[in-house]
Amino acid sequence: MRGSIAGIEDGIIGTAQFRPSYHGLLLELIDYLYASLVVAPLVVCYWRGTWNLMGEYIYPSDLTTSLVVSLAIGIVGHIVFNIFQATLRQYLNADRHRIAYYLGSRLYTVIYGVVCVNGWRGGWQLIDLYTTHDVLYVVLITLGCLFILACLKGVRNVMGTPFLIINDSRREYFDVPTYFKLTGSKDPGLYVLDCMFSVLVIGSLVVFVWRGLWVLLDLKLFPEDHGTSAWASIIIGYGVTGVTFSLQPLMRWTCDRLTGFWRVVVADLFLFFSFIGTINVWRGIWQALDTYFLPDDPLLSNWITHGAALLLLILLNCSNSVLVRGVYIDAEEPAGQCVVFPVYYIRLFFQKERKKKQRRLFDALERADLNSTGGVLQDKKHHHSLQTSAQPPAQQKEQQKEAHQHHIAADQNHQVIRNLEAVPLTIIDDPKSNGDHSSQPTRK
């Protein structure tokens, strides 16, 4: 899955992960609906528009040259963005130059999005150009590539929206995880090789798997009627998506009780089932746009879907959902978290509000603690003066009672502050899109 939930899921659900509240379940449902009905269609619109525009403007009269150029743009662009991610983080820092960061980061998404689409378009259509569409051949190639991905523990990299939302997190905006998780500062040579392996091997296998299943649907799902085929894919896709989200608690419970090889196998089977939903949603929306959205003016249709979708995603703060970047390892998260999809949007908003409230409460209790401590010290001083002054016994007793109450209040404030300090104030400060990376497919 282009997007891991390592480091996110525990924070979101916390100790209530097996006793979710109705409020939490409602927010989770809203996130799923938002990912499926808002983010996924916008991402598909962007990819469809950009894909077709590349065909219009990159050597439109020479298909082979057009595809080779697209593939070169994709490969070189991916490797460059992989290698220079640390440099981008250093110079586009939101804490130091907020405006420069915002403009630079969105320009990064615009350029990287075109790179991703070109890489997929070039590889995908070159395969179409030089291979047959025989069903048996397509099935064997697809299964072979899927098997290699499984051996490399990389099946999750075929995943995409609606099973993830990549929020535009300031902290991880430019992060592109590689397969071996090397860093350029320690061994630049090996890091470059790691980047190349991630792009050329894992990326190519993912394209083969996506293309294989897409072509099979083209061949077998109402091939004579594009409109009916599109609607059939949409129905199948959203049906599988709904079932997958519903099965997530059961699969998490199962993976919590499995270890080693069998946990990876079960997780991969579940992720592949969700992938069937993903590719049907993508194909259905894509083909419906081709069939119904300005079919008599395809250039305008492509520009609208490209520009409007990207603009809306930027405004919704999840534009990085259009990027296909990074490599993630199957079942790298602990226990059942390996089958939890990184779909967090509305819940992040409530988490941030909760963080603010906790911080305000913490500050108020600290002030109250200081006041109580001051009162205790003052009472002690006053109590000492009582011992040397001639006051009625009843008045001395009343003042001692007030001092005792100050002590109790101070102890209570200390205890509340200790409890707050023991609980993290944030659920996810900046969700590591732990992802940030959606495996956005493309079409033939």
From TrEMBL:
Q: Name one GO biological process term.
A: clustering of voltage-gated calcium channels
**What start-end ranges are recorded for coiled-coil regions in this protein?**
none
Q: Residues of the signal sequence?
A: none
Please list the residue ranges that the record marks as compositionally biased, kind Basic and acidic residues: 398-409
Protein name as annotated: Fuseless
Q: Which domain of life is it from?
A: Eukaryota
Query: Which InterPro entries does the protein's record reference?
Result: Fuseless
**What is the organism lineage in this UniProt record?**
Eukaryota, Metazoa, Ecdysozoa, Arthropoda, Hexapoda
Task: Locate the region Disordered.
Answer: 373-415
GO cellular component terms, semicolon-separated = presynaptic membrane
- Which Pfam families is this protein grouped with? Fuseless
Name the residues that span the membrane. Answer: 29-49, 69-88, 100-120, 135-155, 190-210, 230-248, 260-283, 303-324
Which keywords are on file for this protein?
A: Membrane, Transmembrane, Transmembrane helix
